[in-house]
Design brief:
Layout (H helix, E strand, L loop, with lengths): L2 H31 L28 E8 L6 H4 L15 H4 L29 H13 L2 E8 L16 H10 L3 E6 L7 H15 L7 E3 L5 E7 L7 H8 L15 E5 L5 H8 L3 E3 L16 H10 L3 E3 L1 E2 L23 H12 L5 E3 L34 H21 L1
Parallel strand pairs: 1-2, 1-10, 2-3, 3-5, 5-6, 6-7, 7-8, 9-10
Antiparallel strand pairs: 4-5
Helix pairs in contact: 4-5, 7-8
GO molecular function, one term: alpha-mannosidase activity
GO cellular component, one term: Golgi membrane
Main location: Golgi
Length: 417
């Protein structure tokens, strides 16, 4: 071999070794800093192609599986302060009871308003890397529809800040993982049939053309947006009927803003109110079995029978457990232990028994009420010992959801045969 060619090959080999060594050094530094390899700080990790992140080859998300999602969290890096992680301790409505419990606010990052601790730490919902990771976790769990907790522009809950500006960002992130986004319209001061009319027009005009905007195919073949209306019972059925019945004074029916509207069922008497209001179906939301008529698994068969006989959709809500004593220290009687996943599996099986078209999950990340299926990690501080998923891994509930999604899909095939 000529000497010049040998020198050229040696130089190429040395250059390759230098590049390889540099890349490995950067990976090591990133791992030490807790950053994903190959991702600059603050920049979203590029999504893996569909079928990645541990999903079975060819498996996609289930659009019959909806998970309630909250984008109200904030951190000093993105909002200048913590939002929601510093949740105040809610006083009991009876002053005598309230006097026996502590007051004040949580102090993140070590003390947060949750009995569990997120694997991502007390994050910001504005962090691109966090939102991308959430979409990956939803995809890992085979959840096809993210149900976004939503307030109109300029409005927010008592502990947060307006977040409608995050919607395009969430839609774009969801699209990369073939996930759809539906809206969970929250109660706000002055909410009624007129303001919700405006909300629906706003959402559909601004976001309805996005590829990730969820649409439900009805039995008549129409493709319509689907809206969950939280605490719908706060507005009288007669008022809702103005909006949701064909003869209503400002009806959305048979207009460009028609949709599938799902009301919250809490008490047994709400069934008939929901029917007369013109709603298309009902969901139960609460993950505490026995907390309300709607959230009690034993009542789901009767609710489904009522819905079937009145051409309504029943969407039971299942959850992995419930504990909100980090923000409502007096509410221990509504705690539901996870029992290493058995509570969740019992809820999932109860939902399956009534053969629903859609199942909703409470929740992906409502950390205050301990209903999250998002990754959580063990954590102990000088003043707090957080609950965790041990002896299982942080992704335990994502895996459990994915396995159940496959089972749900197979069962639905049998029902249709």
């Amino acid at each position: 071999m000529p000497r010049r060619r040998r020198r050229g090959m040696l130089a190429l080999l040395l250059a390759s070794l230098f590049v390889f060594g540099t890349v490995m050094a950067l990976r090591t530094l990133r791992a030490a800093a807790g950053l994903p390899a190959g991702v600059p700080p603050g920049v979203a990790e590029p999504p893996e192609p569909p079928g990645g992140r541990g999903m079975p080859p060819g498996a996609g998300p289930s659009y019959d599986l909806h998970a309630f999602y909250y984008a109200w969290y904030g951190s000093p890096r993105f909002e200048g302060r913590y939002l929601h992680w510093d949740h105040a301790l809610v006083p009991h409505w009876d002053p005598k009871v309230s006097a026996s419990y502590p007051r004040g606010r949580h102090r993140p990052p070590d003390d947060i308003g949750s009995s569990f601790y997120p694997a991502l730490g007390p994050y910001s919902s504005r962090d691109p890397a966090v939102v991308d990771e959430h979409m990956g976790q939803l995809r890992d769990a085979a959840i096809g529809v993210l149900v976004l907790s939503w307030y109109p522009p300029g409005l927010a809950d008592d502990s947060g800040e307006p977040s409608d500006s995050l919607v395009p960002f969430i839609l774009d992130a969801a699209q990369r993982y073939a996930i759809k986004v539906a809206f969970h319209i929250q109660p706000y001061k002055g909410r009624d049939d007129h303001t919700v009319h405006e909300n629906i027009k706003y959402i559909m005009d601004k976001y309805g053309s996005h590829a990730a905007f969820y649409k439900y195919r009805t039995s008549t073949g129409r493709s319509l947006p689907l809206f969950y209306i939280y605490d719908s019972y706060l507005t009288p059925a007669e008022s809702w009927a103005n909006l949701l019945t064909p003869s209503g004074s400002h009806s959305l029916r048979n207009t460009a803003y028609d949709a599938v509207f799902i009301a919250l069922l809490v008490e047994e008497g709400h069934k008939n109110d929901i029917l007369s209001a013109g709603y298309d179906g009902m969901y139960t939301y609460f993950a505490s079995n026995g907390f309300s008529f709607g959230s009690s698994h034993q009542n789901w068969k009767a609710i489904k029978t009522f819905c079937d006989s009145n051409n309504l959709m029943f969407i039971p809500s299942v959850g992995p457990g419930y504990i909100d004593t980090s923000i409502r220290p007096w509410n221990n009687h509504n705690t539901r232990n996870r029992v290493n996943g058995k509570y969740y599996e019992t809820a999932l099986q109860a939902a399956l028994t009534v053969r629903p078209e859609i199942v909703s999950i409470t929740s992906f990340n409502e950390w205050h009420e301990g209903t999250q299926i998002e990754k959580a990690v063990p954590k102990k501080t000088l003043t707090r010992l957080y609950l965790d998923y041990l002896p299982h891994q942080p992704n335990m509930y994502l895996e459990l959801t994915r396995r159940w999604a496959e089972h749900f899909s197979k069962e639905k095939e049998q029902w249709l045969m």
